[in-house]
């Protein structure tokens, strides 16, 4: 019972080892490279972008890719390359933000739920069952619409949609960790439950939570774009990819580069994060390892 | 006579299980005086750990039923305290050492941090002072490179080292009572002796009373002053270790002694005790040991009370008949 956790934290602790193992798989290595590049581009957008993402040049509207406008321009003449770069900031930043919010809240709720049990556990888990009973896109749309369509509310809606996964995961882990002797031992030192949950249970359930975070990133970025596309997320002129496509798809036939390049940005980003997530899961989740070993 | 730190009085305790209520302890009574080492011995399943955990109130609250009796710690009944009051006592007044040092420490925290948290919890001191106390606590349990060890995770340490850390944690608030539940069973023989010596020394040095749980009578004879023999949830004999070892009154104690190589008299053959612990759901009507007892009589079909004078007491009709032959 305790060995996997010990082994897991050992594996978890060795940063350099982790990096080595992560880049051993060719797909994962590619994903890591892409994710690093995307994050760098997002961070450096203000310096890399040739133009402001919102400055309008009506005389150059819908111009094709050129030396001046690498990705062409949109329907009001804004530089598409600049907009896509700034869009990366929004997608990656907001995506990470809402996943982390869901993970933080979910881990706390789930860990307390699992450790305390009784009515708190019952209540929290029933609530999560209700959230899980809706398809995630429908729930995200309903929540975003109810909260009011803007980027922050979209992020909040997605965090709520993602919450049950973390609560369930954290609770299941907390249940098995609570049965271990060191938790009982912590009680013999007179430590209270708040302390035991935050210092003894949560640190030991982090590895699967980290895996889940990386698995959710791609999906979340896609959800943000979807909400933006549906007009339930970022609003124009914010350079958000989904919102950009919702206008740009009309130009697919004559100015193909506009929706295509924006779509490609979404595709590459989501794919990279998904591949990274799979790679990290294969590495950190011992159960996965064993399964792989047995089936192959 | 010094004051008692712990008095367990007629404790009867049951567990709610799928198969109904199981009475695991029946009328268990013993006491521990300040600074005294008391051994609690008995076969596996006799209720030693349950007794110890009942004292620190670590048993699962939903399934444990204290049917009767009291557990007085420093004069107050542990069973009627609130959880908040109990938290004040755990760690500060009662230290606890478990059998398995491998799993008693948090795998995700360095041992230094674990000690630091517990010390700060107990003493409410600053980080810097706590760091010094961690150092001293590690030195006290004879860890030679405290700085190095403090930075290690439990999985980097040997079983003996971990048990030292657990002892340092349990002793960090200088408790009045240390409960050591088979602290050396999981360790190899050489390490066992060191850990025993360590517990003995710390207890002497700090005047800590120790409830030492073991099924090893050899260990009891080495470090304890008095002992309590538990059989199927009942105290069958208790008294000063020296007297009991020289003159065991209960047939079960005699049988236990014959089963231990270093305590059994030379020349006498080692003997396992035939039969096994009775099923707690279908206990014999009289003496619980009767089904395995070589001295069984008609009278044993009624339950023998725990009788004795002073420190010594035995629950047996047969031994009560004879005049002690010294
Ligand atoms: N939480 C529990 N619920 C139900 N039954 C329990 C529980 N804990 C212990 N028991 C039962 O109580 C009895 C006494 O167990 P205990 O652990 O005290 O034995 P022990 O004397 O410590 O044995 P060992 O030497 O193996 O540690 C056993 O029959 C055990 O199955
Ligand atoms: Mg035990």
UniProtKB/TrEMBL annotation, chain A:
<feature type="transmembrane region" description="Helical">
    <location>
        <begin position="90"/>
        <end position="115"/>
    </location>
</feature>
<dbReference type="InterPro" id="IPR000515">
    <property type="entry name" value="MetI-like"/>
</dbReference>
<feature type="transmembrane region" description="Helical">
    <location>
        <begin position="256"/>
        <end position="277"/>
    </location>
</feature>
<feature type="transmembrane region" description="Helical">
    <location>
        <begin position="27"/>
        <end position="49"/>
    </location>
</feature>
<dbReference type="InterPro" id="IPR035906">
    <property type="entry name" value="MetI-like_sf"/>
</dbReference>
<protein>
    <submittedName>
        <fullName>Peptide/nickel transport system permease protein</fullName>
    </submittedName>
</protein>
<dbReference type="InterPro" id="IPR025966">
    <property type="entry name" value="OppC_N"/>
</dbReference>
<comment type="similarity">
    <text>Belongs to the binding-protein-dependent transport system permease family.</text>
</comment>
<keyword id="KW-0813">Transport</keyword>
<keyword id="KW-0812">Transmembrane</keyword>
<dbReference type="GO" id="GO:0071916">
    <property type="term" value="F:dipeptide transmembrane transporter activity"/>
</dbReference>
<dbReference type="InterPro" id="IPR050366">
    <property type="entry name" value="BP-dependent_transpt_permease"/>
</dbReference>
<dbReference type="Pfam" id="PF00528">
    <property type="entry name" value="BPD_transp_1"/>
</dbReference>
<keyword id="KW-1003">Cell membrane</keyword>
<keyword id="KW-0472">Membrane</keyword>
<dbReference type="GO" id="GO:0005886">
    <property type="term" value="C:plasma membrane"/>
</dbReference>
<feature type="transmembrane region" description="Helical">
    <location>
        <begin position="127"/>
        <end position="145"/>
    </location>
</feature>
<feature type="domain" description="ABC transmembrane type-1">
    <location>
        <begin position="88"/>
        <end position="277"/>
    </location>
</feature>
<keyword id="KW-1133">Transmembrane helix</keyword>
<dbReference type="Pfam" id="PF12911">
    <property type="entry name" value="OppC_N"/>
</dbReference>
From TrEMBL, chain B:
<dbReference type="InterPro" id="IPR017871">
    <property type="entry name" value="ABC_transporter-like_CS"/>
</dbReference>
<dbReference type="InterPro" id="IPR050388">
    <property type="entry name" value="ABC_Ni/Peptide_Import"/>
</dbReference>
<keyword id="KW-0813">Transport</keyword>
<dbReference type="GO" id="GO:0005524">
    <property type="term" value="F:ATP binding"/>
</dbReference>
<keyword id="KW-0472">Membrane</keyword>
<keyword id="KW-0067">ATP-binding</keyword>
<dbReference type="InterPro" id="IPR013563">
    <property type="entry name" value="Oligopep_ABC_C"/>
</dbReference>
<keyword id="KW-1278">Translocase</keyword>
<dbReference type="InterPro" id="IPR003593">
    <property type="entry name" value="AAA+_ATPase"/>
</dbReference>
<dbReference type="Pfam" id="PF00005">
    <property type="entry name" value="ABC_tran"/>
</dbReference>
<keyword id="KW-0997">Cell inner membrane</keyword>
<protein>
    <submittedName>
        <fullName>Peptide/nickel transport system ATP-binding protein</fullName>
    </submittedName>
</protein>
<comment type="similarity">
    <text>Belongs to the ABC transporter superfamily.</text>
</comment>
<dbReference type="GO" id="GO:0015833">
    <property type="term" value="P:peptide transport"/>
</dbReference>
<keyword id="KW-1003">Cell membrane</keyword>
<keyword id="KW-0547">Nucleotide-binding</keyword>
<dbReference type="Pfam" id="PF08352">
    <property type="entry name" value="oligo_HPY"/>
</dbReference>
<feature type="domain" description="ABC transporter">
    <location>
        <begin position="6"/>
        <end position="257"/>
    </location>
</feature>
<dbReference type="GO" id="GO:0016887">
    <property type="term" value="F:ATP hydrolysis activity"/>
</dbReference>
<dbReference type="InterPro" id="IPR003439">
    <property type="entry name" value="ABC_transporter-like_ATP-bd"/>
</dbReference>
<dbReference type="InterPro" id="IPR027417">
    <property type="entry name" value="P-loop_NTPase"/>
</dbReference>
<dbReference type="GO" id="GO:0005886">
    <property type="term" value="C:plasma membrane"/>
</dbReference>
